[in-house]
Amino acid sequence: MWLTDAQKIGVALTSFGGIFMLLGVILFFDGALLALGNILFLSGLTLIIGPQKTFYFFARKQKLRGTVCFIGGILLVFIKWPLVGVIVETIGFLNLFGDFFPVILTFLRQLPGIGHLLTLPYIRDVADRIAGSRTSVV
């Protein structure tokens, strides 16, 4: 594989962070699980792309509103306002990582089981609308 050992650990931490955040939401916005998921997600992201690139990603002028919402949501989760924190954090997450949705959708369409499901007529239209994919007229 083309990933270094630190990047592999970062992928695992990011995945566990997403799982813990999902569990925190499923278990009625459990603050501890959400906080742990946020810490794991941010540390995994830092290991995947490196500390300097992580800082520059969050500090870009175009991403400033998303960064403020994302960090503000994490802080709200830490001060025991998990419902409001998750809502604010989701807004920030969509602003920060919304550009990656077409790439993720393209990757998912290449997977054997999920790809067939995502190419079904009505599901394809909804997925394209959510990801913001553009269709060619040619």
From TrEMBL:
Keywords of the record: Golgi apparatus, Membrane, Transmembrane, Transmembrane helix
Domain of life of the native organism: Eukaryota
UniProt keyword annotation of Cell cycle present: no
A matching Pfam family: Got1
GO cellular component, one term: COPII-coated ER to Golgi transport vesicle
Subcellular location: Golgi apparatus membrane
GO BP field: endoplasmic reticulum to Golgi vesicle-mediated transport; retrograde transport, endosome to Golgi
Main location: Golgi
Bilayer-spanning residue ranges: 9-29, 35-52, 64-84
Membrane topology: Multi-pass membrane protein
Family designation: Belongs to the GOT1 family.
Identification of the protein by name: Got1-domain-containing protein
Species of origin: Trametes cubensis
Organismal lineage: Eukaryota, Fungi, Dikarya, Basidiomycota, Agaricomycotina
